[in-house]
Design a protein that fits this description.
Chain lengths: 380, 573
């Protein structure tokens, strides 16, 4: 009647029971759901929109130094553009104050000579745009949009005059849009941050919580082995980490229109390799501290912050001091981000992936090995 | 007799420097009996249990559990024991049934055998109704029963229960005891660790631990018998019984003395009869009574502390005021739609100890906090020393001393720094501050400990320091929240000697407790249950209310249970 407690079958049943328990806890615990599934969209939205340079309804001033029909026409074109909220003036000095106070972000001056230039066939009429140089990104963006407004005004005017081509300026529709590249960049970073949080912080926290609530002691006094205990944590959080990576990637591709030029298999392989050191670190932290507060502090300092600051995610590693560059080499995320960026933007480049995966697997082996050797079925 | 389940010889376990946590323990634990592991906090009970589970390793001595050596074959031991650690070990976000299923898998209970086992255990623990409720939403008593059920899934040969009755109300405590007793018939060996000496008395066999040493090993009656013929009740005491007790304890023949309602309980040295002090009055009588386990425990430790409090001697007498010092009038506190305390009223006069007695979560701490000005009442009012708590909270707080549960000391500050800090907080300055701190150091013999961090202090000294910090500013009202829970009986006696002395100087005391023995020290008690005061009276009155011909001399716990049950019956009707 009694099954051998340490047969392969009994071990497998226990492991499955532990994983089922963990899965139930994850589903019912708002904090794991928060970190794994609510945080990724928040991060992506923050990085996607927070640094994005959205130029609709930018407040600008338009100065008509001469109240001619064509000047009013052009001013009206600016007013009609969805990109601008226009404040009209007849003297640029009226708008100097507002520009300094950032009430308008740029001033478009239609000069006194505008009409005269317009009627001289030899000369393209000039329009001056005064920018707020304190914010060069907005300045360059406004520059592009203003050019666009002027170009389309000139086109309409030329067609009205029976001419095929406008006579003012080149046709230039390549609006400079810096957000695109930074967005690609940020997606890879967000995936890394979220997986570090799930792998290290969440894992360290849930193990510490088991110690605090006394459930770890109860578990340890059953026939469960130390390996089963560790696997019972690693497998569910590994899957959870991949799950939240998928949420990140889907949002990036479908909501933020980031291109995905590599293969799903490569993305999975790279992410899985990164989760190994993350989980190992989490388990190691929880073997060293049995207190949730301490575990979270150590996890944030040793995993979350390095992933944020030292992985090349926000700050370029090559521009860091040499010593810091060396430190960066032992931050696992530093080996994740180049591959992730490549898989999204460039496509499968296995020579890079294999190298990065190998390094991550090595980190993983070290951390997991340490965690296994530190975890014994002892309470003190 | 059959082979014992556990056999320890010279077992010693150290944590770092200092005295060992367990010191040369040699004992046996047999099948089919309840073995009580008895002793105060820090006696080494948990350490001994963890050694038996294989979760800790001893430095010296040998230990065999179910025939295995826990240092080598812990997993075989773990495959056939049931263990309930102090903090349940339940997953609060899993339901009752999911917890059972998890532990069934971990213990390898085949799926086919589960339905009958679950049904039996759910019926046994009366948890069938709560099968799909998350464990975190169960009451303390129900959690403990579920923990027990999880430990019993695979009918263990040895069941280890670490303080199963802590945080459990007296009614659930009795149920738990009955459940465990029924296991004896199946030959299960039960280890029940406790700091309650009344529980120890009910065990078949007792290991009495104190500071890591085994003081006694055998049937509790054996120990109890040691003080047979030496225990007396002093009845018909005239005058202040606390003063009489102080005098009586200092008589050379008396080993131990406590207050029991209106009477005193004295234990004399072997071969002597205690002499009554003159202030007991001419009508006072000595009535021999049956000894209890605690009497013999104190005797085994060499007797209780002296009867006079140096603390009280150093305090000024508080001038008699006619009106009560502490007044609660219709105090009510609601948190959302939950009423934590409902219309609680009482008054405490100078020189009186008033007890708030009740199970955890009944509302006694809420009431208490409202009176200390820590919580704003939803309705009703409270005054301390004539000061309305709602109008002048700070002023009222300056007139009261507060000793929180588990001593709210700053663990990282030294003893001296704690004293200086609390003197400052209570507004003592200059010469008076110096003088008070000096006095506290002398009275509580803190001189040798001044530079030690408060968290490093032995429990008894922590308690002294906490009391010193609460009374330095000579308050008229003293609030004590579960002051001696977990303390050993000697420390508890010393504490009450001080409190009794202060009360004689005119201090009014409010004490919360779920500890029935502590209730005996009170002049009057309010029994708090489900946010209401369901009975108010002196301990003797409350006991007399439930006395029956079959039970002429009920204990405080009997009174508590009977009154709560009567209340439940009325509520149900």
């Amino acid at each position: 009647m009694t099954e051998q407690p340490f047969s392969a079958r009994a071990r497998a049943r226990r492991l499955f029971a532990l994983m089922l328990k963990e899965a139930r806890q994850i589903v019912r615990d708002p904090s794991s759901i928060l970190i794994a599934f609510v945080l990724p969209p928040i991060l992506l939205f923050l990085f996607g929109y927070g640094v994005s340079l959205d130029a609709t309804h930018t407040k600008i001033g338009v100065v008509m130094e001469v109240p001619s029909q064509s000047a009013r026409d052009l001013a009206f074109a600016f007013q009609a553009s969805p990109y601008f909220d226009v404040r009209l003036a007849t003297d640029r000095r009226e708008l100097e104050g507002p520009l300094a106070r950032r009430e308008v972000r740029a001033i478009v001056v239609i000069p006194a000579a505008f009409d005269a230039d317009l009627h001289k066939r030899s000369k393209t009429p000039e329009v001056q745009v005064i920018h707020d140089g304190a914010d060069p990104n907005t300045a360059s963006l406004v520059q592009g949009y203003a050019q666009g407004v002027i170009n389309s005004w000139a086109t309409v005017r030329a067609i009205g005059a029976g001419k095929a081509r406008p006579d003012s300026g080149p046709e230039d529709r390549m609006w400079f849009n810096p957000e695109q590249t930074s967005r690609y960049f940020l997606v890879a970073g967000s995936v890394a941050v979220v997986m570090a949080l799930v792998g290290t912080l969440l894992t360290a926290l849930v193990v510490a919580r088991e110690w605090e609530r006394g459930t770890m002691e109860a578990l340890m006094a059953t026939p469960v082995t130390a390996t089963e205990l560790l696997l019972g944590k690693v497998v569910p959080y590994f899957l959870l980490g991949l799950g939240s990576m998928s949420v990140c990637a889907s949002l990036a591709v479908f909501v933020f229109q980031v291109p995905f030029r590599g293969s799903v298999g490569a993305l999975l392989a790279i992410s899985s390799a990164f989760l190994l050191p993350s989980l190992g670190q989490g388990l190691l932290i929880s073997a060293a501290t049995k207190n949730q507060f301490l575990a979270s502090q150590i996890a944030i300092l040793s995993s979350f912050l390095p992933t944020f600051l030292l992985s090349g995610f926000i700050f370029e590693i090559n521009s860091m001091p040499k010593v810091v560059q060396w430190i960066c080499q032992v931050v696992p995320a530093r080996w994740l981000i180049p591959s992730l960026q490549t898989v999204f933007v460039a496509g499968d480049l296995w020579s890079l992936f294999v190298k990065d995966i190998a390094v991550l697997a090595l980190f993983g082996a070290v951390f997991l090995g340490l965690a296994v050797s530190r975890t014994r079925k002892q309470v003190a | 007799m059959a082979e014992p389940l556990v056999k320890a010889e010279g077992l010693t376990k150290r944590f770092g420097e200092g005295a060992p946590s367990l010191d040369g323990i040699s004992a046996e634990i047999s099948a089919g009996v309840i073995t009580g592991l008895v002793g105060p906090d820090g006696a080494g009970k948990t350490t001994l249990i963890r050694l038996m589970t294989g979760l800790l390793q001893a430095e010296e001595g040998s230990l065999r559990v179910l025939g295995f050596d826990p240092t080598k074959d812990a997993r075989w031991i773990q495959a056939s024991i049931g263990y309930m650690p102090q903090r349940f070990g339940l997953y609060e976000d899993l339901t009752v049934e999911e917890n059972l299923n998890l532990y069934a898998e971990l213990h390898g209970l085949p799926t086919a055998e589960r339905p009958p086992v679950f049904a039996e255990l759910l019926a046994f623990t009366d948890l069938a109704r709560f099968k799909s409720r998350p464990a975190g939403k169960l009451s303390g008593g129900m959690k403990q029963k579920l923990g027990l059920a999880c430990a019993l899934l695979r009918k263990p040969r040895l069941l280890l229960l670490d303080e199963p009755s802590v945080g459990v109300d007296p009614i659930s405590r009795r149920e738990l005891w009955r459940m465990v007793s029924r296991l004896k018939a199946d030959g299960v060996g039960v280890v029940w660790s406790t700091s309650y000496l009344d529980e120890a008395e009910a065990c078949d066999h007792v290991l009495l631990l104190n500071q890591g040493k085994l003081l006694f090993h055998g049937a509790p009656q054996k120990l109890t018998e040691r003080t047979k013929g030496r225990v007396f009740r002093v009845t018909d005491v005239e005058g202040r019984r606390r003063n009489v007790l102080a005098e009586a304890i200092d008589e050379p023949e008396v080993v131990d003395g406590i207050i029991q309602g209106q009477s005193l309980r004295l234990v004399s040295k072997a071969g002597t009869t205690p002499k009554l002090p003159p202030n007991a009055g001419p009508r006072a009588r000595l009535v021999p009574v049956a000894p209890r386990f605690e009497d013999s425990f104190i005797d085994a430790l060499g007797g209780g502390p002296g009867g006079h409090s140096q603390l009280a001697a150093s305090r000024r007498r508080i001038e008699a005021r006619r009106e009560p010092v502490i007044v609660a009038r219709g105090l009510t506190k609601r948190f959302g739609d939950f009423t934590a305390a409902s219309h609680i009223s009482f008054e405490v006069s100078p020189g009186e100890i008033f007890g708030l007695l009740g199970p955890n979560g009944a509302g006694k701490s809420t009431t208490f906090r409202m009176l200390c000005g820590l919580l704003k009442p939803t309705e009703g009012e409270g005054t301390v020393a004539g000061i309305d708590l709602r109008r002048d909270t700070a002023g009222a707080r300056g007139r009261l001393g507060y000793m929180a549960q588990k001593f709210s000391l700053y663990g990282d500050l030294s003893v001296a720094q704690n004293l200086i800090f609390f003197a400052g907080v209570y507004g003592l300055i200059g010469a008076r501050k110096e003088q008070q701190i000096q006095q506290m150091i002398e009275v509580f013999a803190l001189g040798n400990w001044l530079s030690m961090a408060a968290k490093e202090l032995p429990l008894g000294f922590k308690q002294r320091l906490a009391l010193a910090c609460a009374v330095m500013h000579e308050p008229e009202a003293l609030f004590l929240d579960e002051p001696t829970s977990g303390a050993d009986p000697i420390t508890r006696r010393e504490f009450w000697t001080h409190i009794n002395g202060l009360v004689e100087k005119g201090v009014a005391v409010v004490v919360t407790t779920h500890f029935m023995e502590e209730a005996e020290y009170c002049d009057r008690i309010s029994l708090i249950y489900r946010g209401r005061s369901i009975a108010l009276g002196s301990p003797d009155e409350l006991k007399a209310r439930i006395a029956t011909p079959e039970r002429p001399d009920p204990t405080m716990e009997d009174a508590f249970i009977a009154l709560v049950e009567a209340h439940d019956r009325r509520a149900a009707a």
